[in-house]
Amino acid sequence: MIYTTATCHRLFRLFSRRLVDYLAIDPNNPMEMKGVIRLIESGRPVLIFPEGRVTTTGNLMKTYDGPGFIAAKSGATILPVRIDGAARSRFSLLGSQAPRTWLPRIRLFVLPPTRITPPSAPHGEQHYLAGQAMRRVMTDLMFAGRREQTLPEALVEAARRRGRGWRLLGDVEHTDYSYNDILRSAWVLGRKIAQRTAPDETIGLLLPNVGAPLALLFGLSAWRRIPALLPYTAGNTSLRAACTAAGIRRVISSREFIARFKLEGSLRALDGLEVLWLEDLRDAISLGDRVWWLLRARFSPLCACPRSHADDPALVMFTAGSEENPKGVLLSHRALLANVAQIRAVLDISSNDVVLNALPLHHSFGLTAGALIPLLSGAKLFLYPSPQHHRVVPELAYNSSATILCGNNSFLANYGRHAHPYDFSRLRCVIAGGEKVTPEVRELWFEKFGARIFEGYGATEAACAIALNNPMASRWGSAGPLLPGIQHRLQPLLGLPANAGVLHVAGPNMLSGYLRTTHPGVPAAPQSCFGPGWLDTGDVVSFDDDGFLHVLGRAKRLLTHAEASVSLGLIELIATAAAPDADHAALETPPGEILLLTTAPALDTEALHTAAARLGWPEHALPARIEHRASLPMLAPGKPDYAALTPSA
C-alpha cells in the first residue's frame, strides 16, 4: 500500500510498477480505507508502514491512526516486522551529521502475530483508540529489536556506527571527548585499576559529573569490576552505610573533587577503606600502557579485555534511604541497556541532539537518561557537576545549544525563574522525574520558553524509568504510559477504586538483587506478593482509561488504625490535596497514633476531611494530630527525610 504521490515518481515507474503488486491510496481521502479493508477481508496480505514516511531521526516517528483502525475493523492478523540498519544507507533521510554507507548491515526483527480488538467506543473515538493500540505495537517492536550486550560492547558498537572521531562529550573542565578518547581512557584506566583489584570486586566511585568518571564506569565494566556509584550528597552516615551494604573495600576519588566540593567529612566517613586517587592512577600510566593501547586494544577493544555476559553485574546504585538505610541496587548489563532501549523506543534521541545533564550520575535518572542514552545514541552530551546552580545551568543551555534537558520539578522551577527567555530557545524536550511536576512549573516553561515537559516515573530498581510521557502519548498530570516490555499488577488498598493500588512491576530492566547492611555484598533477589522477579515499588498509583499512570503517593508505610490498614503515604496524599504548595510527612507515634507534620500554617482537620471526601477516600485515613512546622528536612529527590523526622516527633 503506497500513496498516490509516490506512483508519480520516475524511479517508481521505472523499477517497481511492473514488479510489485501495490494499492495506491490518496491520504487526503478517508474513503480510501474502505478499499484497503475490503482487500484484507478478501484474504490478501497487505504491507503497511504505519509511520507513513521514512524516518528522519533513526527512531520511531509519528504513527497514523489509519493503519490501526484498518487492522481493528478488518480483524486482520498483524505480523510486526522491524527493518534495522536501512537508516544508515546512502538513501536515508537522516541529517547530514549521520554516517552513511552503501552496504549497511540490515537486520530484521519479527514479533509474534497479534491482533487489535475493535474498540467499544463512539465512532469518533475509534480511530484514536485503534491508533494508540497500533502505536503500542510499534513501540514494542522498537524495543524488541535491541541486542543482548554488555555496556562496553554497546559503547564500541556506538563508536563504530557514529565514527570514533565524533566528539560528543563535554564538561566544565573544557575538555571535549570523542568516542576514541572515551574508549582509550576507559580501557587504559580500567586495565591499570584491574592490576590492583580482584575480578568481580565492587569498587566505590566518589567522583563528580565530568567525562573521566563516566569513561571509568565503562572501563571497570570492561575488566569485570563492578563500579558502585556512591551517593556523596546523602550525608556521611548514608555514605558509610552504602559502602557497608555493597561490601566495598576500595574507593576511587579525586583530590581536586574533594577539595572543590568540601567533602573532607565524606572522606573521613570512608575511614578504613583504601582510597585510590584518580590523579595518581593517571600519573601511573606508563609508556607500556600507551603502547598496549596503540598496538592491541585500539583496533579491537573487546578482544583486549575479559569476556563478559549481559546477565553479569554491571554496577551498583543506591536507594535514597528516606525510610531506612540506603540499600544497594545491583543492576546487570541487560537491565541497564533494556531501559535505554525502552526509553529510546518512545523518545527520538539522535546525533542531532545536545543533552545537558546536571543531575548527579549516582542517581539512576542522571546516569541512564542523562548519560548512557546520549553516549549510546551518538547525541552530544554536556555534563555539569551540580543542578543547584540555578543561574549557571540556563547559561550552559544557551552556550551549548541544548535540545534536551533533564531535571526534577524543583530544579526546573528555579531554572525557569532565573533563565532568560532565550536561554532555552533550542530545547525541544524536557525530561522530568524524581518528583511530581506541578501545574505552575509546567505552565511557566510552556509560556516562557515554549517547551513541553515530559514527566516520567521510575525507580532505581528499574535502572531509571518505568513510565514516560512522550511526543506521541502525553497527558498533563500523569507520568505517561508504561514503557514497552514492562508488566504491572496492582495490589488493592483499602479505600481505593479498582483501577488504583500499590504498583508491582516486572521486566527485563529490573534489578538483579538488593544489597543490605545486614548481609554485606550478598544480593537478595527481588520478590513481592506476586512472586519472584516482581518489584514492589511502594507507590500508590492509578491508571486512566487510556493507560496513563498517575502517582498518588507512597504506601510502603502501613499500620493498623481503627481496625483497618492505613497507609501513611495516603495521609500525605490527602494533605497534599488540601495544601498542594506545602510539604507534608505522616508519622506513627506511641501509642499507635498518627501525626501529620506540615508546613501549611492554615491546614486543619476540617480541610483534611474536605479533601478526603472530594477524593472519595475513607475518613479513618486521617491523622489524630497535626503539627505545623516552618520546614521539613528533605532528601535530594524531594522526599521527606523520615529518619531525621522520627526522633523529633
UniProtKB/TrEMBL annotation:
One Gene Ontology term from the biological process aspect of the record? fatty acid metabolic process
The cross-references to Pfam families, in alphabetical order and at most eight, read: Acyltransferase (PF01553), AMP-binding (PF00501)
Alphabetical UniProt keywords:
Acyltransferase, Transferase
Domain AMP-dependent synthetase/ligase intervals: 172-515
- MF terms in GO: acyltransferase activity; medium-chain fatty acid-CoA ligase activity
Q: Ranges for the Phospholipid/glycerol acyltransferase domain?
A: 12-83
The UniProt family comment states: Belongs to the ATP-dependent AMP-binding enzyme family.
**Which PANTHER family did the record assign?**
ACYL-COA SYNTHETASE, ACYL-COA SYNTHETASE FAMILY MEMBER 3
The name this protein goes by in its record: Bifunctional 2-acylglycerophosphoethanolamine acyltransferase/acyl-ACP synthetase
Q: Which organism is it from?
A: Candidatus Dactylopiibacterium carminicum
Task: Read off the lineage from the record.
Answer: Bacteria, Pseudomonadati, Pseudomonadota, Betaproteobacteria, Rhodocyclales
